[in-house]
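Consortium newsletter contribution from the modelling node. Members have asked for a concrete example of what our holo predictions look like. Here is one, prepared for the zinc ion complex that several groups have been discussing at recent meetings.
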Amino acid sequence: MFTAIACILTAVVLLYIIGVRPKDLPEPQPVSPFQHLDERKAAIYENLRDLQFEYRVGKLSDVDYQQTKKDLQKELAGVLAEVDRVREQLGAGPAKAVAALPAKPTKFVCPQCEAEFEKDLKFCGECGKPMRKAEA
Ligand SMILES: [Zn+2]
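And here is the predicted structure:
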């Protein structure tokens, strides 16, 4: 009787250890957000190829072929839309950071005396001669 209980306890403990262990393992490396989408896309393409093959060898009726093809293409469109969505989300961060950079203050330099002004003046505030833009 006692042995039986010990056996059951051991079994329970073993099951507990086996069940818990995967959770104790370190988190797997973060995969690319596109990976599972790429895998799904590849699977759909493969299904489409198989479908076409089966249709060509006469395993499928016209109706079955058209219906399954339509379903697969719909699924594929969904996956492609998801890829676009993820790409947009990823692209939004860096694009925003670039746009948020402060604009370089433009300076206007007098061609005569090289005095610098923040504003585009018609005449130099230092020497009074006509100001011209640097690129002009
Ligand atoms: Zn000047």
